[in-house]
Amino acid sequence: MDFTLPHALEVLERTPRVLQSLLGGLSEPWVRSNYGESTFSPFDVVGHLIHGERTDWMVRVDIILRHGEERAFEPFDRYAMYRESQGKTITDLLAEFAELRRSNLARLRAMTLTNNQLNLRGRHPALGPVTLRQLLATWVVHDMNHLHQVAKCMAYQYRDEVGPWRAYLTILPQS
Predict the structure, then answer these.
(1) Taking the domains of the chain in order of start, what are their residue ranges?
(2) Rounded distance, CA 153 to CA 34, Å?
(3) pLDDT digits (tens, 9 = 90+) for 126-137
(4) How distant is the alpha carbon of residue 169 from its chain centre?
């Protein structure tokens, strides 16, 4: 499937609703548990997505449109949510994420990007040259990656409770 902005927006606009449906109103063990050392809990994932809405996706769109490859993107702090989410609830995070995403997508739509603009290049600090099209496609896949991570984390909590069915549940590590 080739990238188109309308197709990308279909996914990007749904992510907050998916997370709200999956996590809204759940008890702490579901949202705060992870699936091993150095893994994110669902709470961490939402905080991470919030940080991306503030400091990554649209900031990088602007850098590409204004500076091209002359100015590299700032490195992204993948762990900023541990600091930024302190004292908040999952309800707080879900609402904040939904509002930031709504605002960012409204801005993105208002840009009415052309095919030529989607081919403009920026510079990632570790990966080198990237196009605006690649950045926006990555935003979509990043969302899907973290939705998968949330589902995997939640499934993991019952890994020992499913008994022999574990052999059929590919979301769980096989023992």
Answers:
(1) 5-168
(2) 6
(3) 999 999 999 999
(4) 24
